[in-house]
Design brief:
It is a single chain. It contains 13 helices and no strands. The chain has helices at about 1-15, 20-25, 25-45, 45-50, 80-115, 120-130, 135-145, 150-175, 180-190, 195-200, 205-230, 240-250, 255-285. The longest helix has about 35 residues, at about 80-115. The two termini are about 30 Å apart.
Length: about 290
């Protein structure tokens, strides 16, 4: 049992310098810094926003960026900078919580499917195949429309839509891990299946799940913006980058700055999470020195 535990733990212990390797990748560092900045802005929104994000001022309708309104105002005189700051909360919250839902549901199901095999695996994979046959965004839109328009329902829809990807990912990793010698040794020593799955198999798929989760947050953030754009996410007057873009398209020629800022923010956050995910993938690679 001791030998099996040592062999199992070695896969995790040999990555003590993962964070150091991450910091050697400039793209990952840039992504990490950008994500940290947006998270800080979202947390400190009440103190950073210069105005009430839902307060209207019909004397300042569609004003261009100025010393008073750094990002300009929207169609009913609301400060765009304040709405951008509060909109970061909705977008990042949707990305993180949606992926958390997908991970909490997908990892146990993938572990069960890969470890049990047989008819359990066959049944679950046929359901997963059916869900993956539908494009991610189309399925998220359909589920959000069924649940009703709100940020909470949008997060649930995105999380459930992303879940099949995690099931298949974890299942594939588990199939590869369960044939390793330390797992066979644990079985030979009479360990119960639940202990083998949790103690010896699950820790060896954490790194892959972490990397994919980071990349999935970018996809979930983009999906939340799309749902809000269609009116299925954050509901007015609460600010959301997607809903701000939806309003801005009506005034793109008269007030293009209304579309500049939310579009730039969405692109920046998605790129940052992708850069961070790529860096994590390289840093957690056991083949890296």
């Amino acid at each position: 049992m001791v030998a099996a535990s040592v062999a199992d733990d070695s896969t995790l212990i040999k990555r003590p310098n993962a964070f150091r390797r991450l910091l050697r990748r400039k793209g990952a560092v840039v992504g990490l810094c950008v994500v940290a900045i947006f998270v800080t802005i979202a947390i400190l929104a009440p103190w950073l926003a210069p105005y009430d994000p839902i307060a209207t001022n019909f004397l300042q309708v569609r004003k261009p960026p100025s010393s008073q309104y750094w990002m300009g105002t929207d169609e009913i005189g609301r400060d765009l900078m304040s709405r951008m700051i509060y909109g970061a909360r909705a977008s990042l919250q949707a990305g993180v919580i949606s992926v958390a839902i997908a991970v909490c549901l997908g990892v146990p199901l993938g572990l069960l499917s890969g470890y049990c095999k047989g008819w359990v695996d066959s049944l679950m994979m046929r359901v997963v195949d059916a869900l993956l046959a539908c494009p991610f965004l189309i399925l998220a839109i359909a589920m959000a429309a069924f649940l009703g328009p709100s940020l909470t329902n949008a997060m649930i829809a995105i999380g459930l839509t992303a879940m099949p990807i995690f099931i298949r990912l974890v299942r594939g990793q588990v199939l590869a891990v369960t044939v390793e010698d330390y797992v066979e040794a644990a079985r030979a020593l009479g360990n119960p299946h639940l202990r083998i799955a949790i103690r010896h198999v699950l820790p060896n798929v954490v790194a892959v799940v972490l990397v994919h989760s980071t990349l999935a947050i970018a996809q979930a953030t983009l999906a939340e913006a799309a749902l809000s754009f269609l009116g299925l996410g954050q509901q007015p007057p609460a600010p959301s980058w997607g809903s701000m873009l939806n309003v801005a398209r009506q005034f793109i020629s008269q007030a293009p700055w209304m579309a500049w800022w939310p579009g730039l923010a969405i692109a920046t956050v998605v790129l940052a999470f992708n850069l961070l995910g790529d860096g994590l993938r390289d840093a957690l690679d056991p083949k890296e020195s």
